[in-house]
Amino acid sequence: MGISANKGDDVSKQRSLFDTIPTLPNEASTQPCRATKEGVELFVRATPKAAKERIDSVTLDADSRSYLKVYVTAAPEDNQANKAVIALLAKKLSLPKSCISLKSGGTHRLKCFSLEGISLDEVVAALRV
C-alpha cells in the first residue's frame, strides 16, 4: 500500500495522528481537519512571534500531510503562543475558547486541536482562506 503522487488522490496508507483527509470527493486539495467521535480534529502549523496574527493557508509538508498555517504575535513561552492560537481559532470558527483544546504538539510547531460543538463541514466552510 502506498501514497499516490497526486495531491487529490485518496491516501491509502494508514498514518499517525496527522493524517490527511480529503474534504470533498472531487476537490484537488486536502483539508487539515477530520471528523472524530468527539467532534473535529484540526491540524495546525503555528508560527509564534509573528508581526501580525492571522490564519494563512493550508499547506502540505514533505509527507503530504496538510496543516493550517497560523501566525500569532505571542512568544512560545509559558503556553502563551498556544493560548493565542486557541483565541484566534475561536474567533474564526465562532466558538467559545472552552470548545477548543490542544490535543498534541504543546511544544512543537505542528499541533493537533480538538474542536467541540462544530461539524466538519462548518470547520471547512469557516476556514476557507
Shape summary:
globular
Order of H and E elements: EEEEEEHEEH
Radius of gyration over all CA atoms, rounded: 14 Å
Query: Going by CATH, what is the homologous superfamily?
Result: YggU-like
| Tally of domains | 1
Structural class: alpha+beta
Indicate the mean pLDDT: 81
Characterization of the model:
The protein is an alpha+beta fold and 129 residues long. It has a single domain, classed as YggU-like (Conserved Hypothetical Protein Mth637, Chain: A, 2-Layer Sandwich). Helices cover 16% and strands 30% of the residues. It is built from two helices and eight strands. Strands 3, 4, 5, 6, 7 and 8 form a six-stranded mixed beta sheet that branches. A two-stranded antiparallel ribbon has the order 1-2. A hairpin with a 4-residue loop joins strand 3 and strand 4. It is globular, with a radius of gyration of 14 Å.
Notable characteristics:
single chain; 129 residues; alpha+beta; Conserved Hypothetical Protein Mth637, Chain: A; two-stranded antiparallel sheet; 8 strands; globular; disordered N terminus
List the helices and strands and how they pair.
Layout: E1 21-22, E2 30-31, E3 33-35, E4 40-47, E5 54-60, E6 66-71, H1 80-93, E7 100-104, E8 110-115, H2 120-126
Parallel strand pairs: 4-6
Antiparallel strand pairs: 1-2, 3-4, 4-8, 5-6, 7-8
In short:
The chain is α+β, with helices and mostly antiparallel strands and 129 residues long. The protein is built from 2 helices and 8 strands, in the order E-E-E-E-E-E-H-E-E-H. It is 16% helix and 30% strand.
